[in-house]
Design goal:
The chain has 697 residues and is mostly beta strands. It contains five helices and 40 strands. The longest helix is centred in the N-terminal third of the chain and has 19 residues. Its main location: membrane.
């Protein structure tokens, strides 16, 4: 019934849009923007790929405190946050690892040996826009098979000196202060932005983030610029033990950071603490002439993490440990091309290279168990990736187009702990993409594409394999996930009343990862456990029907299932164990079939905007065998803002009816003694209210 209601509302919104479309189009529509998450800069409407854009204005309107809040409103993107903020694009996920490639101004953020996407690390106020690429592409190497999220930070674009100051206060003692100064003088441009953010958190989990972004550029000419970018983020938080709660704890201690171990054990579980620092220094050079273009970036990034796992400090202090991680990353990216005209045919080849060198050292101590052997927890890791691509864009009579490219990547992983366990592995990966297109005009196109790319296993997967993989999961058997994707896409800026971006896709996943266990229930790490296929439809549409009303729609249908593979599971209702259960034909867990957002915008008077979002996410399976289902959820957001001259004030509410939201984990489908699922729940945010003010000068 809810699915029918969702599509009835969707159809009801789009039908009047088709009938009320007017001549003339808002010039600042997102499909008109120049995107950089490709091998060459082009308008979004001309890019033959499934690509979505989130603007700074949209981030401000929704009051996002981390970019996951915004990403979850994009078609094909699902919030899978548990112990850290994370998303899944098109269902391509695995446990204990990062997801999509996360970039900051084109530079990969690969932090730590688990490679989680540190979305909390990115100050929302410093973002100009976010580009989300779901298609197979060759612009970025290993990891792109799970999608690409490119966060583009703010830049100065105005002559003179300007500034912005903003502050907000919300639920759970959440406050966010931001100040920026930017401008252009003679041939120089500059920007300095500083942010301070604090929250006690829905679960009494305190977070603090201080960040600074600095840019200085010198414009050699109207076509060439050399620039320096410096980012620094200091982030710390306290979290409940993995944020994990079982049913009794969920029912009785939903928002507490400290809670009893169980109904029969009153020993308290304490909180964990994490302090992180990240500094990036990047030297950038770009040149764009009528015929030729060139972009390059050389960056150095340092990352420090101190983690204190103190959950059992009053129950079992010998299990308490402190872990520190230090990482240095050097990255180089260069790409350039030339535009040839041969009458009715134009040809633009682009050639690029990438190099990345990551050096990570991890150490661990047990302060209340100083004699414990920690040899497997103290290690050095080095990962190097070399990439080269060649992309070709052809246009025939300004109507027909063909994008075709190839890419080669080589990744080398070296790992050694104090046992010593040693890893010295390398893999070669060959990617390609072919996309013919037809451009009805400069505001509409249809394309088809086929492409192959990869997701390279995180260093932690290699560490587990060499430490405990044994004969079931030897390190030499770990292979990158390979994804082959077919797409059909349609983009059209009809008018200010109706614009659409739609994609139909089919993907084949080879060598997907999952947990491997032996018959003693001992973990053997993460290994390639099978193949899968996905098919889906993604739709974005928006428009301004009249001066008083606009709408936004994002809808997703996705059917993602295993085609082959085995996994460790519990068989219902007897709760018997099967270490090699056939999972072929089963849906991949935690991926809803239907999800979407319907947004309504009202403009009752000059300067006043009132908006409402209805967010729907369908039922999801929790386990490999699809024996446990998590119910669908519908949440509502509302906001109002008023702009007067240089001032802006706003109030907003998120999840205003306080729907209970959790990430549920129980991939094996284990049951308790009473026959109920032994689900672990990671509580997500509840109802949130905020007010804020900003001033521009």
């Amino acid at each position: 019934m809810k699915r029918c209601l969702f599509f009835l509302i969707l159809g009801g919104l789009l039908w009047p849009a088709l009938g009320l479309a007017e001549d003339g189009r808002e010039a600042d529509h997102k499909l008109d923007e120049i995107v950089v998450t490709s091998t060459r800069k082009s308008k979004a409407v001309d890019t033959p790929a499934s690509l979505s854009i989130i603007t700074a204005e949209e981030l401000e309107d929704m009051g996002a405190k981390n970019i996951v809040e915004a990403l979850s409103k994009i078609p094909g993107v699902v919030d899978s946050s548990s112990k850290s903020q994370s998303v899944v694009i098109r269902g391509n996920k695995s446990a204990m690892a990062g997801g999509p490639v996360l970039l900051m101004d084109g530079v990969p953020l690969k932090l730590g040996d688990y490679r989680y996407s540190e979305f909390d690390f990115i100050p929302v106020n410093q973002i100009e826009r976010i580009e989300v690429l779901r298609s197979a592409g060759i612009a970025y190497g290993p990891g792109a098979a799970r999608g690409v999220i490119n966060v583009i930070t703010k830049k100065s674009k105005s002559e003179g000196v300007h500034g912005d100051v903003s502050a907000s206060y919300g639920s759970w003692d959440s406050h966010d202060e931001n100040v920026s100064l930017y401008g252009m003088k003679n041939k120089f441009d500059f920007l300095v932005d500083a942010e301070n953010y604090h929250t006690d958190g829905y679960e009494e989990e305190e977070e603090n983030r201080q960040s600074v972004l600095g840019r200085l550029g010198y414009n050699l000419s109207d076509q060439s610029r050399i620039g320096l970018r410096v980012n620094h983020v200091d982030y710390d938080n306290q979290t409940a033990e993995g944020l994990k709660k079982y049913q009794w704890q969920l029912d009785n201690y939903r928002r507490e950071i400290h809670f009893p171990k169980s109904e029969t054990d009153s020993d308290l579980l304490w909180h964990n603490e994490k302090d992180e620092k990240n500094t990036t220094v990047a030297l950038e050079f770009s040149h764009k002439a009528e015929k030729k273009f060139f972009d390059s970036s050389f960056s150095w990034a340092t990352y420090e993490k101190d983690f204190r796992r103190t959950y059992a400090i009053y129950d079992s202090p010998t299990s308490v440990y402190y872990e520190d991680s230090d990482q240095d990353t050097y990255s180089l990216t260069m790409s350039g091309g030339y535009h040839f005209d041969f009458g009715s045919v134009s040809y633009t080849p682009t050639i690029g290279i990438d190099y990345e060198d990551i050096d990570n050292t991890v150490g661990r101590i047990y302060p209340y168990y100083p004699t414990k052997n920690t040899d497997t927890y103290n290690f050095d890791l080095q990962e190097k990736t070399y990439g080269v691509f060649w992309d070709n864009n052809l246009r025939f009579n300004e109507k027909w187009g063909l994008d075709a490219g190839i890419r080669f990547d080589r990744t080398e992983v070296e790992f050694q702990d104090k046992v010593p366990n040693i890893v010295d592995e390398d893999r070669d990966m060959f990617s390609y993409s072919i996309a013919p297109s037809y451009h009805f005009n400069d505001q509409a196109m249809i394309y088809a594409s086929v492409g192959r790319n990869y997701w390279f296993p995180t260093p932690r997967y290699y560490a587990w394999a060499v430490e405990k993989g044994g004969s079931l999961n030897p390190v030499e058997d770990l292979e990158p996930e390979e994804v082959l994707t077919y797409e059909l896409g349609y983009k059209h800026l009809f008018s200010k009343a109706f614009n659409i971006n739609a994609t139909i896709y089919y993907s084949e996943y080879k060598d997907k990862f999952g947990s491997v266990y032996d018959e003693n229930d001992d973990s053997c790490g993460q290994g390639n456990i099978g193949d899968a296929e996905a098919k889906g439809i993604e739709i974005e549409a928006d428009g301004r029907l009249c001066q008083y009303f606009g709408y936004r729609v994002a809808a997703t249908y996705q059917d993602i299932e295993w085609t082959s593979g085995t996994a460790f599971v519990y068989i219902h209702p007897d709760n018997t164990r099967d270490y090699t259960a056939d999972i072929s034909g089963k849906q991949i867990y935690w991926v809803p079939e239907i999800s979407g957002v319907i947004g309504l915008d009202f403009y009752p008077m000059a300067g006043l905007k009132i908006s409402m979002d209805i967010n729907y996410i369908g039922e999801r399976y929790v386990d490999y065998l699809n024996q446990i289902e998590y119910p669908d959820k519908t949440t509502f957001d509302a906001r109002a803002s008023y702009t007067w001259k240089a001032w802006k004030v706003w109030v907003l509410g998120k999840n205003i009816f306080d729907e209970d939201l959790e990430y549920a984990s129980n991939s094996s489908g284990k049951l308790n003694s009473d026959g109920e699922p032994n689900n672990a729940y990671y509580v997500q945010n509840g109802a949130y209210v905020e007010a804020g003010i900003s001033y521009h000068f």
